[in-house]
Amino acid sequence: GAVVSQHPSWVICKSGTSVKIECRSLDFQATTMFWYRQFPKQSLMLMATSNEGSKATYEQGVEKDKFLINHASLTLSTLTVTSAHPEDSSFYICSAKRQGLNTDTQYFGPGTRLTVL
Amino acid sequence: KQEVTQIPAALSVPEGENLVLNCSFTDSAIYNLQWFRQDPGKGLTSLLLIQSSQREQTSGRLNASLDKSSGRSTLYIAASQPGDSATYLCAVAAFSGSARQLTFGSGTQLTVLP
């Protein structure tokens, strides 16, 4: 149990276009989901915390108007990279916290590789 | 601001060796510490989670220790195998609010040579 999926697994787009990445908890409900970004040879950096039914909380330095997060249901959060540029090319990983359990375990998705040409 | 450091950045060992990966953190007020494994181009697999009140956790050939007062954790891998080759990340969870945010180290890239 506790499987998190991401779609797409990889995407290549032209500069200036917008890209939507989905994060789904397949067999549990997640009140909180996290979005991370990982550049090559670097660690994961938290971008934002997404709570179902409310606005996301963004980390310092992350533009909320550029990285739109929607957590419309207990099993789905989406990250939209608007007007993507080559410097947005990165590995985007989401994680989800299970609702109702007294646990801090985050279950991670497999990641989405974004390449902006 | 919490900072997590992992040493070494890369490690190459022959198969069968025991090895230790190190993780240090600057703020000892943590909720828990986790060790993850990441294969190239893949997501994260949780290996071990140590609560702040614990000193170690074991799973198979893996043993993780935590010394919160000194801000250190080690991951011990016994009898290493080529399949252990991956990047190992440690992450600490802060106390802030109900959503425990994780701060990750930059990882140790392990290569086990057959």
What does the radius of gyration of chain A come to? 13 Å
Tally of helical runs of chain A: 0
Based on helices, strands and strand pairing, what is the structural class of chain A? mainly beta
Q: Label the structural class of chain B.
A: mainly beta
Shape of chain A: globular
* Number of distinct beta strands of chain A: 11
Shape of chain B: globular
Terminal residue distance of chain A: 37 Å
Chain pair sharing the greatest interface: A-B, 22 and 24 residues
- List the total number of helices of chain B: 0
Strand content of chain B: over 45%
Average pLDDT of chain B, rounded to a whole number, is 92
Oligomeric state of the chains present here? heterodimer
Secondary structure layout:
The complex is a heterodimer of chains A (117) and B (114).
Chain A: E1 4-7, E2 10-13, E3 19-25, E4 30-38, E5 44-51, E6 57-58, E7 67-73, E8 76-81, E9 90-98, E10 106-108, E11 112-116
Chain B: E1 4-7, E2 10-14, E3 19-25, E4 30-38, E5 44-51, E6 56-59, E7 62-67, E8 72-77, E9 86-94, E10 102-104, E11 108-113
Parallel strand pairs in B: 2-11
Antiparallel strand pairs in B: 1-3, 3-8, 4-5, 4-9, 6-7, 7-8, 9-10, 9-11
Report on the structure:
The complex is a heterodimer of chains A (117) and B (114). Chain A has 117 residues and is an all-beta fold. Helices cover 0% and strands 55% of the residues of chain A. Chain B has 114 residues and is mainly β. Chain B contains no helices and eleven strands. In chain B, strands 2, 4, 5, 9, 10 and 11 form a six-stranded mixed beta sheet that branches. In chain B, strands 1-3-8-7-6 form a five-stranded antiparallel beta sheet, with no helix packed on it. The model of chain B has no long low-confidence stretch (mean pLDDT 92). Classes of the chains: A mainly beta (117), B mainly beta (114). Chain A binds chain B through residues 6, 32, 34, 42-46, 49, 51, 91, 93, 95, 97, 104-106, 108-111, 113, and chain B through 4, 31-32, 36, 41-46, 49, 89, 91, 93, 98-107.
